[in-house]
Phenylalanine--tRNA ligase alpha subunit (Entomoplasma freundtii), 354 residues
Amino acid sequence: MKNKIQELALAFEHQSQEIKTLTDLEKVRLHFFGKESPLNIILKQLKTLTPEERQKIGQEANQLRNHMTEVLNKKREELNDQEWKEKLAKDKIDFSFPGFALPLGKLHPLNLVMNEIKTIFRELGFLIVEGTEIETDEFNFQKLNLPLGHPARDMQDTFYLDSETVMRTHATNMTARYLTNVADNSHDNEVPTLAVLSAGNVFRRDDDDATHSHQFMQVDGFAIGPKISFANLKWVLQSLCQRLFDQEVKIRLRPSFFPFTEPSVEVDISCFKCRNENHGCEICKQSGWIEILGAGMINEQVMSLNGLNPKTTTGLAFGVGIERIAMLKFGVNNIRAFYENNLKFLEQFRFYGM
Ligand code: DAH
């Protein structure tokens, strides 16, 4: 019996040294620990021995079993370790391998121009608001001195949602909203001061062509106070144009008409492209001047219609079409290019403003 244990120990020694993989290990474990294993057979036969022999052989068998368990556990750990290392070596990341270029999103050119203008006015101290695109006839027209049936309403062909509600035809609706609000909240003899820029989409029943669209974007601003003068208006417009186009541009004001301003002006800038050399260029249509926006002093009638006293409160106002500015700045001659979502066109503005 003792010999058998020694033989078994030798056989285990030999076989365990041959273990190269976890599968080998499992085979050896089954062989030496399974139900029919030589060790089990020895243990079963113990009962045929004398008590002293049984104790001795039993002890040796147990020692061998503990030894084998220890050896196999150690082997298993080593093999697991090795397997990990091999896996890591195979999965190695090559940091010098070139990556994939992901397409980079960028703002739409109209939003680029819009943001540029908003930044200029924010720095001039204006409050920037978006306002509502669905507006009542009252705030879109009546409170801006365009009563029902007024011929100047024809200048802005309108989408009516019902007899009293329109898609706003201009961002000037927010002037009426703010003037009314200020009047409602100011106290006796107090002259309110406020500068607001309303920016967003406007809608007109125009036929779309190279320079018109039934939906477009505007910024519309006003400033009111006790001493707002025409000189302030000129300064605001000059600051806007120089920052938007180029430090050298001059502005020229021509008399015009808008129901909400009196006097009203049409604002031209000197051509930033040709600087009126060699009899002008295509952009300024050989005139050296480019028409870019409408402006004026808020009509006294508008102050009264919104509950303010025109004798103590004066104001300046202006309205700018974003598409027109973008077309001029980027040399785009068809407004539709902005709405077609042609990536070849849009990608050209990738680096603008960076
Ligand atoms: N609301 C005018 C339009 O859409 C533009 C405009 C002109 C706005 C003069 C103004 C202004 O605030 O003073 O055609």
Summary: The longest helix spans residues 51-90. The CA atoms of residues 108 and 341 lie 9 Å apart.
